[in-house]
Fold this sequence. Notes:
Layout: H1 4-26, H2 30-38, H3 46-56, E1 64-66, E2 69-71, H4 73-86, H5 92-104, H6 108-121, H7 126-137, H8 141-154, H9 159-167, H10 173-186, H11 191-203, H12 207-221, H13 225-238, H14 241-254, H15 259-271, H16 275-288, H17 296-305, H18 309-322, H19 326-338, H20 342-355, H21 359-371, H22 375-388, H23 393-405, H24 409-418, H25 426-436, H26 440-453, H27 458-470, H28 474-491, H29 494-508
Antiparallel strand pairs: 1-2
Helix pairs in contact: 1-2, 1-3, 3-4, 3-5, 4-5, 5-6, 5-7, 6-7, 7-8, 8-9, 9-10, 10-11, 11-12, 11-13, 12-13, 13-14, 14-15, 15-16, 17-19, 18-19, 19-20, 20-21, 21-22, 21-23, 22-23, 23-24, 23-25, 25-26, 26-27, 27-28, 27-29, 28-29
Amino acid sequence: xxxxxxxxxxxxxxxxxxxxxxxxxxxxxxxxxxxxxxxxxxxxxxxxxxxxxxxxxxxxxxxxxxxxxxxxxxxxxxxxxxxxxxxxxxxxxxxxxxxxxxxxxxxxxxxxxxxxxxxxxxxxxxxxxxxxxxxxxxxxxxxxxxxxxxxxxxxxxxxxxxxxxxxxxxxxxxxxxxxxxxxxxxxxxxxxxxxxxxxxxxxxxxxxxxxxxxxxxxxxxxxxxxxxxxxxxxxxxxxxxxxxxxxxxxxxxxxxxxxxxxxxxxxxxxxxxxxxxxxxxxxxxxxxxxxxxxxxxxxxxxxxxxxxxxxxxxxxxxxxxxxxxxxxxxxxxxxxxxxxxxxxxxxxxxxxxxxxxxxxxxxxxxxxxxxxxxxxxxxxxxxxxxxxxxxxxxxxxxxxxxxxxxxxxxxxxxxxxxxxxxxxxxxxxxxxxxxxxxxxxxxxxxxxxxxxxxxxxxxxxxxxxxxxxxxxxxxxxxxxxxxxxxxxxxxxxxxxxxxxxxxxxxxxxxxxxxxxx
Length: 517
């Protein structure tokens, strides 16, 4: 049996090593944790030390060194509980280890009571407070939160209470962000702490702070896959797309066959306006990705964005052979719509709707009804979607489209003018339906409205020119074709650029006047 001085020294070593062990624990890095424990494993009391660490490791399934041997976690806790009986009962460490043994046996009530009694004997003891807060976390989150706050006041130089307060999912976001920042500052030399805090800050939307912490983690830990991945996400969320792209590309060098990285590179290239490079990476993604992989819907979205409807239909069907989900059914419906089979599109959207209460599927059903020439049914579905989620953009657009089809133009104009949300497609959608109805002047006016409220793109500009051409307004059509040609070249769409060039050249020719017709 060790003397009290040895046990006090043991408690001191717990206080100095706990934060580093915690960093390894949350990163699930068992080997570094074992190495750190090994450096202190010189006395029999290390069983108690490791038992306390096990509680902090949150049940990671690994074997830990005890007196230079490995024991399964359950056996480890049993030995620790037995060892705790030989420690002096008045020591906080002994009470903490006994509580750990009770919790491991499933008696949380007794474990919490023991910790509470220990804190009455040893007020503001770090080990007992930490133990009790962990036990309260799943039973009474509010009580755990109060304990973390109190520990932050009692132990302002310890990182772990601040980190645990920052992890509290039910806490105030501003308080959580502040706590994580403080935890990261206190553990500024530990790369794993920077990584963990940076990741949590990103999840809370503190993108700038997340980038700072994750960049420090990269400096201290090196360019590991997990660090690069989270850093790229934070950079993209902060708006630094070029830095995010550079990080994705660095990660792609490490793992060239990971399809989700290729998808992330392609998406970021598209957001930077490098559409040709994005399409090249999507083609590579198509070669290496399986239809059942998690990120495959992002590829389906790319196919839809670029009007590759036949490919979208084939890939959607291939994915549906492996598993049925609402999003894939949605893309199948969009493919059928693009290919002109609106009845098949409606069937796919209805099947997606039957699998989920998602309001977006109701919006798409309204869209298919409009395409089928059933504006009254579309109007009812759009109103249903707006009941499920007021002021949703697509439902507003489909309701306006139905009103235009019913020739209630004034009501449709007022509906679109009163909408204050994103206008990415609303006017364009109505314009396409009016063009199909051969109401070219109204369609041209709606395309012009779309070009005023969103950045100009080649396809929308070209369609606006088509409507002016069909409305016999040649001069305006020629000007728009010229604009569309330049936009298409900038977007890397040479086929559309050539078409617009030919239309501009044809419409710009001066007509000859013949007196006899």
